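User: Predict the structure for this protein chain, please.
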Amino acid sequence: MTTPLRISKVAVRRLLLHTQGLLARWPAEAGHSGPDQVMKLIRSLVCVQIDPVSAVAGNQHLVLGARDPGYSPTYLHTLLSNHKVFEYFANAACVIPIEDYALFEPVRARMRERLAPSLQGLEGTVEHVMQRLAEEGPLPSKAFRAVERVSGYWDHPDTPKTKDTSLALNLLLDTAAIRVVARQGNERYFQITEPDLRREESTSREEQDMLNQHQALMDKYIDAYRVVDARDPRLGWLKWTASERRAHIAERVASGQLTPLDIEGVATPYYIRTEDEEMLLNLETARADYDPSGPVRFLPPLDNLLWRRERIVDLFDFHYKWEIYTPEVKRTYGYYAMPILHGDRLIGRMDPRLDRKTGVLTVRLLSMEPTAPPVEEWITDFREGLQFFASMHGARSISIEKTVPKELKKMLKSI
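Assistant: Here is the predicted structure, written as structure tokens:
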């Protein structure tokens, strides 16, 4: 039986931040990014979650912008249109490097099996959509005229509201018969999945049995999360039972692929890639020399760091809930509250809105944690971080409506 590595909480969270591209200062070449730099970043993260909600910008753009100070949404659009990335289910709907397409065949196979009856129920519409895409594609959803309204993914069965063509497109997308090849804002352009990609996944199925395919996808999940636990229902991005998740972790520990951790003050067993053990020990040794100053980063609700909320509690002592689905009168921090990262600590939340017509970034609530360091330790970095965030997303001015504590508003008056 492998003895867990005794380690501090501080060292583990710094390992997590480092591997997520969130610990270091901005690179020297800040402001000189481009599609190639963004592609490198996506590969290091494994995937980036997509979300249409845009209080400031889409989640995918906020994730990349928090790590690359020279980022522009046009870079991601370029990668998509140049077929360097594809969109599919990993942690949820994500942008994924195209070279990983074959690895997600187990997910596609599950979706094809689950959605086959729904596709059969829309057979005529599906044939129409596929024919038009074959003849005219790529096309957006708005290019198709609905014949009838049906019950879509979010509709109540008794109140069908979705265009039959829109549902057909979503079903075909989820089963990978088609894929997104371009975006204009939130408008997606669909194309029939290329034969080359289909041949690649077919070859993958022939060369690997199902167990090996699952293991390969599990490896990719671990590369994305880096600090993992068997409780996570998304473990391996496959639908496993709790006992199956524990067994998969145990197999990797026994084979030397994972190292179990005994984190001071944390009851939950966590695991890291064995190849990351030296990095973790170096971070433990360097604890006393760590400089906590640096850029303040504002993380979107679906940032890679926040995917496992229980892990954030354990390692950062920070409780986070995205209140988008909470009735407004019951919200504590706001509709789009973004955790604020300073150094290796989550020190508060900011609820922003960007009005692109006026160019005003309005911070409806800036709420700092009671456990945040003294204000003089982070206020300068915060000012610079907020001004940079506003500039990156096209805002020309900043308005702060409410702060907790109240006196913080006066300190930020000149921002």
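DSSP finds 14 helices and 18 strands in the chain.
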